[in-house]
Sequence to fold (672 residues):
Amino acid sequence: MTERHVWRLAKRPVGDIADGDLAYGAETLPDLHEGQFSLRVTYLSLDPTNRIWMSDQEQYMPPVGVGAPMRGGVCGRVVESRKAGVNPGELYAGLGEWADIMVTDGTGLSRLPEIPGIPLAEAFGTLGLVGPTAYFGLLDIGQPKPGETLVVSAAAGGVGQIVGQIGKIMGCRVIGIAGGKAKCDYVVETLGFDAAIDYKNEDVGAALDRLAPDGVDINFEQVGGPIMVEVLKRMKLFGRIPLCGMISSYNATTPTEPPGFWTMILMRRLSIRGFIVTDFAARFAESGQAMLGWMMEGKLKTRQDIRPGLENAATAVKDLYSGGNFGKLLVEVTPP
Amino acid sequence: MTERHVWRLAKRPVGDIADGDLAYGAETLPDLHEGQFSLRVTYLSLDPTNRIWMSDQEQYMPPVGVGAPMRGGVCGRVVESRKAGVNPGELYAGLGEWADIMVTDGTGLSRLPEIPGIPLAEAFGTLGLVGPTAYFGLLDIGQPKPGETLVVSAAAGGVGQIVGQIGKIMGCRVIGIAGGKAKCDYVVETLGFDAAIDYKNEDVGAALDRLAPDGVDINFEQVGGPIMVEVLKRMKLFGRIPLCGMISSYNATTPTEPPGFWTMILMRRLSIRGFIVTDFAARFAESGQAMLGWMMEGKLKTRQDIRPGLENAATAVKDLYSGGNFGKLLVEVTPP
Fold:
């Protein structure tokens, strides 16, 4: 009998996630059945969509059931296996549980390559779900062309930092929107964005007028709310909006939709498309290969914000909704 | 010296088009310069976008200047030509003026084929600008697949009647929305739509629930307002919305945008794209050829609502905004 630790959804949050919405405890790891394996989680990925899964609002996969283990992106190593082709010590990543050990049949998980010279946190924080989110959202939906202006909100976050760098690789002029000087300096100086707007200390509309006087071709949208509205107003003819997230509304207790811009969508012939990374699951090998190449060439850097200790996950996740993370937010569950 | 009659924009309408916003009169036809020809207009096409052109709101081409001839879709025959390759008697169609004779260098006009056995009004009312609007909006943006459910608003209008029939050709289940029993009967019985909703006498939401219990894959949107909202709420996962028009708002004096549905666009991964027919100008030969083929096979029928007399154009155009037309609205300027 092995003990494991796990976070379960105790009740659905109302507004911000509160103490007691998630419950942490020890329990007995179930026995392995034929076709299953156990995975010791190294890193747990905390992502804005976690708050959606905790709710029962309309969403893109079933919400986490009350009483069930909290769902999360994970990477880890196989401990024991009763599944053909899966061997102890192998590295897997994908959708799992907020737990230190989990039993799985492998659904939602795939092999994560071991990359010489690149720490596991960085590989997972780039090639995990954030990577294909950025890759397919920008390339398939955003359709960037050299010389175009790309705006990315939540620019120093897990997805945003990758979107901006792929935009640069594609020859775009990239403007990031982030909160605070440190994040803005990071995306410009370390990641090579052309400019950044500090939404906590600048008038976003005025800054866009200055930095993108001809308007915006692509708005990679993750935030919603008043920042989204300022970017929308400045979309150019035939502009594209990959709609990746609306984090500003996830904790809202009353609807906070930005207004409709239907007439503008018509007159400027804008394209808007909502997407979820799993829509592109059949093509993850393509994104993984491309991004791994860019990492090896030094064109794709990512910063991880690593919080130690599974027991701290429920506190750490709140930082996503207040801008308290800087880079891809991970919990180190087991030392790598 | 030849006299012509023309409608000029006297002042920009506020709200509904009023008497005196457009002024009708006789004037001397200018002399032909080298590279120009004169066209005797047979039919003037009246289209919802006419109201946009009269305003100075944000729009997709320059508004008609106050004092300038009103812009409109026309077809007609060449009278005199000083342009190489253009000969008297030839048939042209495209963007022109609300006039009985116009002088042009041919910009915005192209040859309209003479189709044996098909009256000119029907050829123009199908292959004029309404045809490619329906064709590219539905096929390129809507991406219809067999068995999918297509909803088309303004179903008995110039574009709507074509959209629905192309949808049937593509194997979709087609639901039209139109005002009144006669229009609803027409799209089902004559055009072969699967069903129609009479928005003047039925609860559109309840009718959609009954006719499309699994939801809507494609909403070909021309109307906006509360009808659009009812369709939006019922969009299926991965649904597409070709945004062709928002006629319910064109006469509004205060903004009447439908609300934003950003969270739903994200969660259901909807695609929305605004378009104007001229965006596809380079491919008009493709749409013309396909639609001509369907017309010859009897798969594409259109109804024209023909009003005689150029002097009645300013009265007739108002019917577009009250649902007073039944079929493609044309003014017969000169007997064909």
